[in-house]
Design goal:
149 residues, mainly alpha, 2 domains, phosphoprotein, Complex1_LYR_NDUFB9_LYRM3
Length: 149
């Protein structure tokens, strides 16, 4: 079963029943962690959640198994925490997107005195830029010069 929170047209992969059950279990545990601040209370509820899943783990009838999965999804959706706990560097977390990756071309604008502090690095960098340009021109050809209109 697909994620009910994600629209059907955005789902790009097909997951097996076992993957969907594991995904539901993990989301149920994360929801319980968001709901219960005390670790002991959370562990108690995690044990109850595990017992619910273990009760039906040997179900052979796929129609019944799918129905149980859909009921579990509905139960989770009905009991979702209003402010779920998120990892800080994950999407939705407070630190997501804060570490900016500086692009390589910024080094081209360093002052020569700044580059002089790292002569071996910049010598190797210039060599690699030249090799990259040669590989590009060998594969795609030299760029065509256009006259201004």
């Amino acid at each position: 079963m697909a994620n009910p929170l994600l629209p059907k047209h955005l789902q790009t992969t097909v997951k097996t029943h076992a993957q969907n059950v594991c995904n539901l279990y993990k989301r149920a545990l994360r929801n319980a962690l968001s709901t219960h601040d005390d670790r002991a209370v959370f562990r108690y509820h995690a044990t109850l959640i595990r017992a619910k899943f273990d009760k039906n783990k040997d179900e052979k009838d796929l129609r019944k198994a799918k129905m149980l999965l859909e009921e579990g999804e509905k139960e989770l959706y009905a009991n979702l925490h209003y402010q779920p706990r998120k990892f800080s560097y994950s999407p939705g977390g407070i630190n997501y997107g804060r570490s900016v990756t500086i692009p390589d071309w910024v080094l081209d604008f360093w002052h020569p005195l700044e580059k002089a502090r790292y002569p071996e690095y910049f010598a190797r960098r210039e060599l690699r830029k030249q090799q990259y340009t040669e590989r590009w021109e060998k594969k795609y050809g030299k760029p065509v010069e256009h006259e201004d209109y």
